[in-house]
Amino acid sequence: xxxxxxxxxxxxxxxxxxxxxxxxxxxxxxxxxxxxxxxxxxxxxxxxxxxxxxxxxxxxxxxxxxxxxxxxxxxxxxxxxxxxxxxxxxxxxxxxxxxxxxxxxxxxxxxxxxxxxxxxxxxxxxxxxxxxxxxxxxxxxxxxxxxxxxxxxxxxxxxxxxxxxxxxxxxxxxxxxxxxxxxxxxxxxxxxxxxxxxxxxxxxxxxxxxxxxxxxxxxxxxxxxxxxxxxxxxxxxxxxxxxxxxxxxxxxxxxxxxxxxxxxxxxxxxxxxxxxxxxxxxxxxxxxxxxxxxxxxxxxxxxxxxxxxxxxxxxxxxxxxxxxxxxxxxxxxxxxxxxxxxxxxxx
Length: 347
What we know:
Helix content: 25-40%
Radius of gyration: 25 Å
Number of strands: 12
Structural class: alpha+beta
Order of helices and strands: HEHHEEHHHEEEEEEHEEHEH
Oligomer: single chain
Largest sheet: 5 strands, antiparallel
């Protein structure tokens, strides 16, 4: 779809834009997609992404109160604009469960570390108005609280760094190498695929990397401006791991018990073997991380190439067996090499 190239987005900026978008569309029935995208300074893809979220918003989830907005790719139609306007027949009121959910969420978000003070104060003012409007319904919310998992503070710092275009310093645990590393990154965007990640330009690797927030042991927002190179944002809706054509090729052979590898790992080909197994060819910027896949497969699979990776997997198997037996294990050359995940550009 035509339009400006996608740019880094953070949750707060997107929320502000969508609130403005509601007013804009209400005053312009049948607005053209390209005109709206140009007016908001975003790509048409970003606009369509916003339009996919808006129908889940409204004055209530009780039926008929959600925004009925859709597009045919060229124009945008809002079929029930009166739902949020002065034309509404009855004054809007929050049910007890709706008020409780909003108040608990607002209080929780206001405690996030790294939240800009202006946003925190605006949230607290809105919360006070909501409490007054909710009346007795607000009472239940005072007895509830939300505790964010450890990544909450990291999320706030990353979101702030993206908004203010500043570089981050992190101490990060990489399970593929079982080590903590220090690195500076230029954050590009936050993404959620099962877990929450930050996609960033890593100054240590001089490459694009994705970092899982709950593996960030320490984080600091630096004074240096964030300046990632101009790179095309990938569509991560299918999978987080998306190897590039220039990444090193690895060949893995698996038996019938290892066929799941072809379902979980992006690959170039998966050829049937006579014993019911598969010969899988895949790519990864970090082939060494596949040693853990080989260890996980055990007798159900082995790394075939490159030879040096197969050798290192056999050595890892010997060391693992020795740790259990207390003696040097003897693993036949060419025997099962052995993993529980690979990075594919993910740290």
